Amino acid sequence: MPLVSDFDKYFLHLPRISRPDDFDDFWHTAINELKKTPIDVQFIHNKRKSTGKFTVYDMTYIGYNKVQLFASLHVPDKINKPHVVILFHDYDDVTSYAQFPIDLSFAYCFVELRSHRNIIHYDEVEKKSPGFMVEGILEKNDYYVKGLYLDGLRTIDALRLHNDLDCSKITIVGKGLGAAVSVFTASHSNRVAALVLDTPSFCYIDMAQNIAKSIIANEINDFIEEHKNKKSVIKKTLTYFDALQFTNKISCPVLATVGFKDMLSPAECVFALFNHLRCDKTIEVYPEEGHSAGGIEQMNRMIEWIKNQFEK
Fold first, then answer.
1. Residue 142 phi, psi dihedral angles, 5° rounding
2. Quick one: which H or E segment has residue 172?
3. Residue 155 near residue 71 (C-beta atoms within 8 A)
4. How many CA atoms within 13 Å lie on the side-chain side of 40?
5. What range does the domain containing 204 cover?
6. Considering the entire predicted model, what is its pTM?
7. Which of 273, 251, 144, 253 has its CA nearest to residue 204?
8. What is the rounded CA–CA span in Å between residue 52 and residue 168?
9. What is the CATH number of the domain that holds 289?
């Protein structure tokens, strides 16, 4: 009975969304700024990583504010013009999809979140927080997440310049913060045909900051504690980046996952995001699991779900 009660509580969770008056103008201006920056994409054949099934390219391109971005592109050798699956990993976890079971039906682009190549953890037991989630947080135009979100759109633009890919219908998969990037990207690109939100975070931030035990929540809360007189400014900035704000523009099918014991992406916040989606949507629930809800088996289910979207 408690399990049913918890599910009902989460499933009915539908917090009110309030967007700043200049919300649409802010993002319209930001996207136009991005278009002014040359992509300068390069695809370097990585012979060591390539197999008899996939040709692998080390991909570099220029994102918002002229930051160099990195990705690994896997193109199947025997498929002509494959559709692309783009994967965004979680915050401070570039290995989120290191074991992703890639299928020969698609090409795969594994994207490194901006600045993550510069993270060095000398002590894996006591990792030092990267601090990216508070970079520029006092001014929305300078905030780290602004660039992070725009990188999603830039990734699509870069992939379109590869002659062997079909980018007319793209799937995006995101884990944690990567799922928030995925939501933004899908909300601003008509090329996204399917969206997988894997234990998404940075959604319903007002609640997440109070109950999440994640690096993201800790970085922001610690910063607020040190700058108490700036709390209202910080909260205002975050309203422009909460993934909930973009749900009204998602039209493609969505597959989401949630773990009831997830302390990094609390179920209340995941369901807040899911419940606001107005598209064809499915959520897979793991009552006894946390942030890795479903593990490799769930990743296999993601692939099957993606394939089904393209067979319709």
1. -105, 0
2. strand 166-175
3. yes
4. 13
5. 2-19+80-102+117-311
6. 0.95
7. 273
8. 26
9. 3.40.50.1820
